[in-house]
Amino acid sequence: MQRLLLLFLICINLHAVAAPPGAIVLWPGAPPGGAAPGPQRDSAKGSITQVEQPYLIAHRPAQPNGIAMLLVSGGGYAHIEAGKESGPTARWLQAQGVTAFELVYRLPQEGGGVSAPFQDGQRAMRVIRARAAEWGIDPARIGMLGFSAGAHLAGMTAVQPDAARYAPVDAVDAVSARPDFAVLLYPVLTMQAPFDTTHAKKQLLGRRPVQAARDALSVELHVDARTPPMFIAQALDDPIAPPENSRLMAAALRRAGVPVEVHLFQHGGHGWGLGKPGSEPAAWPRLLLAWLQAHGWMAQPAG
């Protein structure tokens, strides 16, 4: 039996790991509400589950330009696709002089409950801002970038940065969790029918949630004038997250007078990360840099 179990684990390419060396653990003790029993598991492709203690992976450039981004991979709130989303993007941002942090957060069905990922998102923003001077970061130039369900987590943090999601645990929690800008890529944002077909919605709310629960986690319903500027990109042929996620969010931001730039690609599907070379979505990193420069968060290149 033990030999069969070992073979099974090898076949599904899973191995147990602790937080990697140098990781920045978010909570000084046990995270609020609990966590997965652990140990954390990473697939061969970098998909993470069983997060026992959420943490940040820092990618610090040799010459930081003062801007920082918190990266949140997707995975439908059932796993974290760091291997193809936050990891490659963090390394690309680092090459641009951006201090990038990958967030490894708790999943709602693994012990921490529905609030767990949102608690981790808030806490991560506060940790980065509280230690900004140490890392050469301007505390007024910290953004949040999310992919798919990670964009939902980023979006909820952006529209409700002051929500009392957990009792303060130390001085870090007196620091603002509001990102100065947010980047949402092939995002899951709304929990409203008929666009509520995502796995993220099922993980968070189940199959038949009451309307109040849908409203509470529909990002577009919580936009106000204090919501930070946003950059949104999605493909119109996305088979996972309906493009209405982006359209509804953009409309809400415009009604509130919040700057938003939206790029809807004709083709690209879902889960493209940095984008396959030659594809339409592969343009988003260049478009993002231009947007950051236009808003003054990032300096124009010399020459």
From TrEMBL:
Xref: InterPro entries: AB_hydrolase_fold, BD-FAE-like_dom, GDXG_lipolytic_enzyme
Domain BD-FAE-like: 68-253
Keyword Hydrolase in record: yes
Signal peptide: 1-18
KW Signal (keyword) present: yes
UniProt keyword terms in alphabetical order: Hydrolase, Signal
Name listed for the protein in its UniProt record: Alpha/beta hydrolase
Organism field: Janthinobacterium kumbetense
Highest taxon of source: Bacteria
GO MF term list: hydrolase activity
